[in-house]
Amino acid sequence: MAAPVIAIDGPSGSGKGTVSRLLARRLGWHLLDSGALYRLVALAGIARELDGADEAGHAALARSLDVSFDVDETGGERVLQGGEDVTQSLRLEATGNAASRVAAMPSVRAALLERQRAFAAPPGLVADGRDMGTVVFPQAGLKVFLTASAEERAKRRHKQLMEKGVTVNLAGLSQEIRERDQRDSNRAVSPLRPAPDAVVVDSTGMSIEEVVDRIYALAHE
Q1: Which of 35, 60, 84, 129 makes a 20 to 30 Å CA pair with 106?
Q2: What gap in Å lies between CA 93 and CA 109, rounded to an integer?
Q3: For the chain, which residues make up each domain, given as ranges?
Q4: Parallel, antiparallel, or unpaired: how do β-strands 5-9 and 77-81 relate?
């Protein structure tokens, strides 16, 4: 492997995106938000009015994505597709649900595999996703499976959306998260599950800073 890798996997709403971004900044390493890649494919499919079940069409989009990850002036996430800032569109619930379906398509996953591995470059990489430790970087030096209760994850997502001015129903959000967990855990290709050698971190009741400190300590062990 070209550079050390910390693989952080977990279900939707577990906080792995924020944790990975803060950890990468603290270490001075590169960041891979693999979930954003699947959301980008889903978003491109929606823009082109592809049928949600069109695997070949979505795989073609996956092979031609022009994407880069950046940080905005506040230190937050910024994702560019073809030079256009699509960060807000990527975080819509509709995009996330479409991405979960797209991520179950074997040819889409195959198209994105090598692209993800290419992110591993010196001085190191923090890779955030659902199969980073099991499929994309099986030789990663540290694998973390970050989780939290469905109720806790729904509350976090609800808070994030309300802060952005998006009104959502907490009960409905909790149900969507459970359905996405079920879909992600039972797909035929790269199901969501901890790697055998992953450290499971349950973040229920923990602050983001506590989780980052915990993984940072694990990295130094």
Answers
A1: 84
A2: 21
A3: 5-220
A4: unpaired
HSE, side-chain direction, 13 A CA sphere, residue 42: 23
The amino acid occupying position 178 is R
Q: How confident is the model over 101-157, as pLDDT tens digits?
A: 998 899 999 999 988 998 999 999 999 998 999 999 999 999 999 999 988 999 988
As a three-state string, the secondary structure of 41-81 is HHHHHHHCCCCCCCHHHHHHHHHHCCEEEEECCCCCEEEEE
SS3 21: helix
Q: What are phi and psi of 202, to 5 degrees?
A: -90, 110
CA 65, chain centre distance (Å): 17
CATH superfamily label, 5-220: P-loop containing nucleotide triphosphate hydrolases (3.40.50.300)
Residue 217 near residue 28 (C-beta atoms within 8 A)? no
Question: Taking the complete model, does pTM exceed 0.70, yes or no?
Answer: yes
Burial class (CB in 10 A: 0-12, 13-18, 19+), 107: middle
